[in-house]
Amino acid sequence: MFKLPITTIALIIVCSGSIIGPLGMAGVNIAIPNLAEDLQASAKMIGWMPTLYLLSSVIFMLPCGKIADNYGRKRVYAFGLGLNALASLMCAIASSIEWVLFWRFVQGAAGAMIFGIGVAIITSITPNNKRGMALGTSAACVYIGLSAAPAIGGWLTEIWGWRAVFYSQIPLVLLLLLAIKLFLHGEWKNDKKSSFDWWGTALFSLFAICLVLGLSDLPTMTGWGLTLLSVISLGLFIIHQSKSRRPLIRVQMFLESRVFSLSLSTSFLMYASNFSLAFLLSLYLQYIKGLSPSHAGQIVLLQAVSMAIMAPLSGKLSDKIQPRIIATFGCIIVMVSFFLLSLLSMDSSITYISGSLLLLGIGFGLFSTPNNNAIMGAVDKNELGVASSSMNLSRTIGNLFGMSLVNLIVHYYLGDSTFSAQHSHALMSTISLAFNVSLGFVILASCISAFRGKA
């Protein structure tokens, strides 16, 4: 009887999770206008939907990586899937924006387990000379999910309303959990368990919470105070980790490998530039251009489609060519596309927007997998869980930082107003400034990527 190798089974399962996960992110973004109208939520409250998801992911990413290394990567991954299904159900039946926000926070913790551990499972069982291709396939599935999610989210919202976007995830997750139980045998963890660092977790959580609250409340004294406290907390976290015998992450890893540290820095900046794009374009296309949710979703998916095509190709190339070269070329293409988007106006054509998104997707597809390959190839096998979590943490903190800045811009231009066509000029100002900030991030990322050194 024909039996698939364990590496193939693990790749199929992680890739399936990578396709399902984006429904909770990109699919929900398209449903936001419908949700805001139904729950009578202000622009400021709606801005917290993606932010709370990211905040929770940042807080739980490193602890989950450490727990997975100690107790089993498959076990933590499966628990994350189950928690995601529960949070989706509770969001779907929520009667107020406050309850939706609470369960989005829970869903972010589940996302930390799914995305933070999936790459570690693949890296644990894949030979080094095939790692780039495997990571590229996984990344492509994320982008396939991101491709399908806006369109699916738009169709579900138009036909059944925003709650259907959350309901749709539940049966898919349950099927994947059944597949793990039946087909993915074995467990991957370290031979020796290390104690959990509660103080490190508390300091890092304080950093993330103060960063988000501080940036959202600038330029008030409270905002500046919280932002300063976040910087102090991060400094204390780094000092604590360097001296701890049971750290969440060995900070020496950053000093031991220039490639590891600079690749994570590049990842932070690139994802800080990109995450708010779907959120902002969803508002632009529906409120300013007057498109339906499904039509807006079809346009937004162009970026993800081109990313899905490029990611496995660039991953395979990064097994043969220095990842730095491919990733830097991708950064430069993304820089050009954000320059085009920074010129967006209320009269810009759909063709102009579509072309810019297509170019951005190609560039990001060239960047992401080679950059991930460089990160995972720069650490010892005993630290794959932490390295995978660090890689996803740099992405998530970048997403969180970028989205927090967008929240600040939204609050400045729109305040507590509700999103509507009558505020289109303020919304356009918000979008233009946000895209210019993203352009600045990508320019800096391109420079760091070029000088990171050889893997």
UniProtKB/TrEMBL annotation:
The way this protein sits in the membrane is described as: Multi-pass membrane protein
Q: State one Pfam family annotation.
A: MFS_1
Stored InterPro entries: MFS (IPR011701), MFS_dom (IPR020846), MFS_trans_sf (IPR036259)
Write the record's keywords in alphabetical order, separated by commas.
Membrane, Transmembrane, Transmembrane helix, Transport
GO cellular component terms, alphabetically, are: membrane
**In terms of one coarse class, where is the protein primarily found?**
membrane
Q: Which residues cross the membrane?
A: 45-64, 76-95, 101-122, 134-152, 164-184, 196-215, 221-239, 259-284, 296-313, 325-344, 350-367, 397-414, 426-451
Task: Tell me if Transport is a UniProt keyword of this record.
Answer: yes
Coiled coil start-end: none
This chain's source organism reads Pseudoalteromonas carrageenovora IAM 12662
Instruction: Output the superkingdom of the source species.
Output: Bacteria
As for subcellular location, the record says:
Membrane
* Annotated protein name in UniProt: Major facilitator superfamily (MFS) profile domain-containing protein
One example GO MF annotation: transmembrane transporter activity
Which residue ranges does the record assign to the Major facilitator superfamily (MFS) profile domain?
10-455
